[in-house]
Design brief:
320 residues; five-stranded antiparallel sheet; alpha+beta
Length: 320
């Protein structure tokens, strides 16, 4: 689709270049060429001599555009005969279309090259045809602008379609990733629950969890809340998670408060000991982080708390 849009933009630019060329060509053929020829003579007037020339033939060719009622411009070639030093010369010239009704005209002949001729009189029809030429050029310019606008609108429509398709593909991919993530999470939760001893299955109420968040002035991630609800009563996980309880509350609450005095950011809560350091969670991310007094918060290999539990659960007596 991007290739298609680039191609349309190229066509649009090419289209404008063609129309600008047509306007310039129109001005050149309807007076510009004749005046340029005349001014070339005037600049080097001493290098030319004026002679009388006889028109012996006229050849006209009309250039008509499709859908254009009148010729866009007419190319008029005059065959003229003139004499220099008693010798006759015949040349074809294109800059005397306003003198085609005459029998004789004046020519400026280059002294150093008798076959090189220039117009030696101003082009009067340039003034007479100025408004007509201008209107025709404006008509072409108007058509060009209209086509440009239509083509540009079509290009914008194509870009919008491409953007919508890209956005749709991104959203679909995000949705698939989200579904896959949910499926993986459920699978991991089921694997973890398979280690639970049903006889000791005690769920932590949401009220107690809310009290813990209020006590720490922080919100837990959904993954950590699930662990509290399903694993807080399972002693086999106490070696993995700080879920043991005393009169002062759960161990993870006490450790979190203690570590805040040692530099733990207030938007983190502790979930486990990790050697001499501690593993922490964050409401804004499902990842597990490591906290140490020397380094602060750093990343770990664990994408979620479930990955941490499953990697470490077999090292302890968490079996039915």
């Amino acid at each position: 689709m991007q290739l298609r849009t680039d191609k349309l933009i190229f066509i649009e630019k090419l289209f404008l270049i063609i129309y600008l060329f047509m306007i310039i060509l129109k001005i050149y053929m309807c007076g510009g060429m004749q005046q340029i020829d005349y001014y070339t003579y005037k600049i080097d007037q001493d290098g030319y001599q004026i002679v009388e020339a006889t028109i012996i033939g006229i050849n006209e060719k009309s250039i008509t555009l499709r859908g254009y009622g009148i010729p866009y411009f007419t190319i008029t070639k005059l065959e003229v005969c003139y004499k220099i030093n008693g010798k006759s010369y015949i040349e074809g010239i294109y800059t005397y279309d306003d003198k085609k009704e005459c029998k004789e005209i004046k020519l400026a002949v280059k002294k150093s090259n008798v076959k090189k001729v220039k117009r030696c009189i101003p082009y009067v029809l340039m003034k007479d045809n100025f408004i007509k030429t201008l209107l025709q050029a404006m008509k072409i310019f108007g058509i060009a602008i209209s086509m440009f606008i239509l083509l540009n609108l079509f290009i914008l429509y194509q870009k919008k379609q491409e953007s919508e398709k890209t956005l749709k593909n991104v959203n679909e991919k995000l949705e698939r990733d989200k579904e896959r993530e949910v499926d993986e999470k459920i699978k991991k939760q089921e694997m973890i629950l398979s280690y639970c001893l049903n006889a000791n299955r005690i769920s932590l109420s949401r009220i107690r969890i809310d009290d813990a968040m209020k006590k720490l002035n922080i919100e837990f991630s959904n993954d950590f809340i699930w662990c509290l609800e399903n694993l807080a009563g399972q002693e086999c996980f106490f070696s993995i998670l700080l879920f043991s309880q005393s009169e002062e509350g759960y161990e993870f609450e006490q450790v979190t408060i203690q570590l805040r005095g040692k530099g733990l950011p207030y938007n983190y809560y502790v979930i486990a000991r990790y050697g001499e350091n501690y593993l922490c969670g964050n409401k804004e991310s499902s990842r597990i982080f490591c906290f140490s007094q020397s380094l602060g918060i750093t990343n770990t290999q664990y994408t979620t708390i479930y990955d941490y539990i499953l990697k470490n659960v077999n090292e302890y007596q968490c079996v039915k």
